[in-house]
Structure of Alcohol dehydrogenase zinc-binding domain protein:
Amino acid sequence: MSHAIKVHQVGGPEVLQWEPISVGAPAAGQVRLRQTAVGLNFIDVYHRTGLYPLPLPFIPGMEAAGVVEAVGNDVTHLKPGDRVAYASVIGAYAESRLIAAERLIKLPESIDDIRAAAMMLQGMTARYLIRDIYKVRAGDTILVHAAAGGVGLIVCQWAAALGATVIGTVSTEEKAALARANGCHHPIIYTCENFASRVLEITNGQKLPVIYDSVGKDTFMQSLDCLQPRGLMVLFGASSGPVPPLDLSVLAQKGSLMVTRPALATFIASRALLEENASDLFAAVASGKVNIHVNQTYALKDAAIAHRDLEARKTTGATVLTI
């Protein structure tokens, strides 16, 4: 009998319940997957609390790695024994599951399951942020909030490898050192100094073409003051809470600014897009341009503890739930 974390009512970490589940045979187009490692992401918290509502009850989690146990009819690109990973598919907090085969990506031998579970959602998010939403180029100066987080560390490394100057915000000196060691040229400890003022100092008043913000409420409005005319604000998360309603005329007043709220699912919606994104990520990791830092692991049954630590900002880099 397999087990999974289930949510029967939204709320704090205590609503994450470890329960037995039944996993049947795969239908046409499906795979039965024995999972080995599950990625932890802030979107899991949004689902658990109801900020991003899901029908109850549900199994949380959006990414994992594992081994194919059985394939349904019409599945030709996978076979039992294949190592695979996925992202942006709800239901990952489980020892085993059924999943659409077209959402699975075969893993290269060079990437182990722990790193795979840590990199699919965060790594493909970083990829679309700096290659699709805004093409970061050599000579750009960018700002990355939560620079010591999972996505932040990948964006810092990848953007620096592209020749950009990277400014990042962090909460502690330890996180500043981690960000600095991973491509962030100018870490700003926002608990000690005003990040907007510091950005103006670093850029000599020139401001920035793009800002990547997964923090939300605590950083959004000040970030607008850091953008050049026609600059782009990319809001892709809300770890501090949702951004309050915005009078769009503010964007005109601050220099015809642009704001976008993207989601990874849109950028890997088709099989072709998924393969392109994953291929670019695997290549960046294989080249050494991007290192995946799994700085915390917890047993899957202890997901509630992992959620508490994530919300308390005790974690850095990626966190993986092991099976």
